[in-house]
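for the recovery benchmark. tokens below, seq after
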């Protein structure tokens, strides 16, 4: 498996749009591209994994959609099955009790009022590194040490 440490991934993750990836595509700096780029910076083998996938990529090989990236992470040779999965919580900013104290990558899918694939971000055990959407219909988490 290719799971980097939480701290290595966080050190390579740029949470602000316009912060890291430059690309000629119309949507050059989505959450999935930022996370993809952080994964590649943490371990170059991720770029080969992304390029071999049939998911939507930018010309540099980074995955463009949150659900697409989640599907790749779920492959046994990458991260494997998610460690936690939840349904929608009471509010956008109320995490499930068993997410507290766990660090990792969280993929929020079917976010109310959002037409895209969702959002993928880092969770430091108490707060998101970027954004959180705990009211999403489906939520997956892969823990990182």
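predicted aa per position
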């Amino acid at each position: 498996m290719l799971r980097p440490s939480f701290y290595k991934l966080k050190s390579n993750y740029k949470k602000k749009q316009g912060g890291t990836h430059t690309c000629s595509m119309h949507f050059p700096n989505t959450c999935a591209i930022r996370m993809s780029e952080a994964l590649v910076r943490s371990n170059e083998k991720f770029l080969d994994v992304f390029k071999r996938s049939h998911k939507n990529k930018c010309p540099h090989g980074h995955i463009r959609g949150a659900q697409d990236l989640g599907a790749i992470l779920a492959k046994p040779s990458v991260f494997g099955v998610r460690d936690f999965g939840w349904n929608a919580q009471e509010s956008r900013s109320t995490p499930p009790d068993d997410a507290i104290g766990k660090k990792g990558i969280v993929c929020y899918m079917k976010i109310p009022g959002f037409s895209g694939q969702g959002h993928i971000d880092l969770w430091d055990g108490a707060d998101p590194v970027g954004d959180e959407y705990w009211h999403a219909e489906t939520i997956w988490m892969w823990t990182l040490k």
